[in-house]
Write a structure and sequence with these properties.
There is one protein chain. The protein contains four helices and no strands. The protein has helices at 4-17, 20-28, 31-40, 59-75. The longest helix is centred in the last third of the chain and has 17 residues, at 59-75.
Length: 77
């Protein structure tokens, strides 16, 4: 059985070799995954259209949009 540190190193090497984190960063920064992310959180109506300003969706922009939509939902209560 391998030690915990060895398994972590093996996992890190695998992620780096296959550029998994790079792929995840790319996918989570595009509008393609912005809509499903909001939908999963229950913050997007089925028929709602998101405006694409042509810029990459940053974590900060996503977080800001989530906070804005959450506040709107909770204000109804």
């Amino acid at each position: 059985m391998q030690a915990g540190g060895s398994r972590e190193l093996e996992a890190r090497n695998y992620l780096e070799k296959h550029r998994i984190m790079e792929l995840v960063n790319y996918l989570t920064s595009t509008l393609l995954f912005f809509r499903p992310g909001l939908k999963t959180l229950g913050l997007l109506d089925e028929d709602e259209v998101l405006q694409d300003d042509g810029h990459v969706i940053t974590l900060e922009k996503f977080r800001s949009e989530v906070n804005k939509r959450t506040e709107k939902i909770w204000s109804a209560f």
